[in-house]
Amino acid sequence: MTEQKSTNVTWHEHLVSKDERFKLNGHKGAVLWFTGLSACGKSTIANAVDYKLYQAGKHTYVLDGDNIRMGLNKNVDFSPEGRAENIRRIGEVAKLFAHAGNLTLTAFISPYKADRDKVREILGPGEFIEIYVNASLELCEQRDPKGLYKKARANNLPNFTGISAPYEAPEKPELVLDSNSKGIEELSNEVIAYLEKNGYLKA
Amino acid sequence: MTEQKSTNVTWHEHLVSKDERFKLNGHKGAVLWFTGLSACGKSTIANAVDYKLYQAGKHTYVLDGDNIRMGLNKNVDFSPEGRAENIRRIGEVAKLFAHAGNLTLTAFISPYKADRDKVREILGPGEFIEIYVNASLELCEQRDPKGLYKKARANNLPNFTGISAPYEAPEKPELVLDSNSKGIEELSNEVIAYLEKNGYLKA
Question: For B9, how many CA atoms within 13 A lie in the half-sphere containing its CB?
Answer without folding.
Answer: 7
